[in-house]
Amino acid sequence: MAAEYGTVSHLLPPTYKRMVSAWLEEDCPSFDYGGFVVGEGVKEARLLGKSPGMLAGVPFFDEVFRQLDCTVEWHIREGEIFEPIKHCATVRGPIRKILLGERVALNTLARCSGIAT
Question: Could you report the per-residue pLDDT of 33-54, keeping only the tens digit for each?
């Protein structure tokens, strides 16, 4: 497991943060209707693993929410195999920003975890 040897994000090219910025820019609407409705209240969202698999893509997931001023608390490690239903992480921050990052973060995590599994 790579995480045993160091920080997994160190394996990524230095441009990965710009890639995440581009993904968010592409995905975010010009007018955020959902954000308008839910507002800026601080909330939390739980990431649940609903299929057996291996967690991968944590640095991308973290960077999405870092750029949106949210925090991520992981309950399992990159490379860990889990069985459903597993509470993998908790995201905290303004609900509007959690919703803005949700699709990009989940799509990236699902893709990476699918390949790793």
Answer: 877 888 899 999 999 999 999 9
Check: CB of residue 65 under 8 Å from CB of residue 106.
no
State how far the Cα of 62 lies from the Cα of 114, in Å rounded to an integer. Answer: 18
Q: Which of these, 110, 117, 112, lies nearest to 52 by C-alpha position?
A: 117
What is the pTM assigned to this prediction? 0.90
Which H or E run includes 114?
A: helix 95-116
Amino acid letter for position 6: G
Closest CA to 79 of 60, 101, 99, 53: 53
> Amino acid letter at 72?
V
- 62 touches 20 (CB < 8 A): no
- How far is it, in rounded angstroms, from Cα 5 to Cα 108? 23
Helix (H) or strand (E) holding 67: helix 58-67
Structure confidence by residue, pLDDT tens digits, 86-99:
999 999 999 999 99
